[in-house]
Amino acid sequence: MGWSPANSDKEQHQKDADPTAWFRKYKHGGTSSLISTLTTVMTFPIYKTVFRQQLHSSGFRETVAQLNKEGPLKLYRGVAPPLLMKTLNGTLLFGLQGTLLQRLSRAESILPGTVLPALAGLGAGVVEALIFTPFERVQNILQNSGNDRSLPTIRSILVRLRSENLAQGFYRAFLPILARNALGSSLYFGLKDPVSSALREQGLSPVASSFFSGVFNSMVISLPLYPMSVLVANMQAKVGEEKLGLRASAQKLWRARQCSLILLYRGGSLVILRSCISWGITTAIYDRLENRTN
Length: 294
Fold this sequence. Notes:
Helix content: over 70%
Protein name: Solute carrier family 25 member 53
Number of helices: 13
Radius of gyration: 20 Å
Mean pLDDT: 83
Shape: globular
GO molecular function: NAD transmembrane transporter activity
CATH architecture: Alpha/alpha barrel
CATH class: Mainly Alpha
Strand content: under 5%
CATH superfamily: Mitochondrial carrier domain
Membrane topology: Multi-pass membrane protein
CATH topology: Mitochondrial carrier fold
Family: Belongs to the mitochondrial carrier (TC 2.A.29) family.
Pfam family, one: Mito_carr
C-alpha cells in the first residue's frame, strides 16, 4: 500500500503511544550519528578547504596549496569539536524532535498533522543552536591558521573566550546560527518521511529511499542556507578584533565578496557534497534502526 498522510498519521500515533519511543529516538539518533562520524573524518579535509574559502574567498587550488604547505598534522586541527558535535547533535536533534512531535500531536485538531514534524524540527533546531554554538565557535577558531600561534590549544581558546562576554565570546554569531539551524531542521524533518515514501513508491528499497531522502534534503537545505554559514565562519573565526554586529558583519562580508553571489557561494559545491554524504548515511542508519524496533 502506498504512503498517504492518513496512514502516516495513524502509524505516528501508534509510535507516540509507546512510552519508550522518546528514549529510542535519542538512542537511534546518537547511534546513527556516531556511526556516520567516519564520514566526518573522511570528509574533514573537504570541510576545512571550504572553511578557508569562506574565510578568505580564495580559489580551490589556492586553498589546497595553502593547506598542503601547512602540512598533514595541521590538516586535522579542529576535527575534535565536529566529531563530538556530530554524535551529541544527532542524539539531541532526533530525540528532541521526537519528543516535541509527541507533545504536538495532542494539538492535531488545531494544526494539520503533516506540518507537525516540521514544527517539531523547528523547536529542535532552536535548542540545537543554544547548545552547540559554543562548539562551533571553538571549531572555527581552531581552523583559522591565523590563530595557531596565539591560541594553539583548545584550552587556550576556552580561557580566552571565558574572558569575553557571552555575546562576543562563546555565543558570537548566535543569531545566524539560530536561523540556519531552526530552518534547516524544520525542512529536514518536514521533508524526510514524505520524500522517502515517494521514493519507495518508485521501487527503491527502504535503505536506498532513506539514503536518497537524506541526500535530497541536504541539497535543499544547504544551498539556500550556505551564505549564513559563510557569515558565521567569518564572524567566529577571529578573536580580539573589531566586534561588529550582525548587520555590519554581513555588509562587510558582502563588500569583501565584491557584491557577487558567485564569490559568496565559493566552496558551496563542496559543502553540498559533504552534506549529502553525511546526511544520506545518517538518515539511512536512523531509519533502519527505527524500522527494526517498530
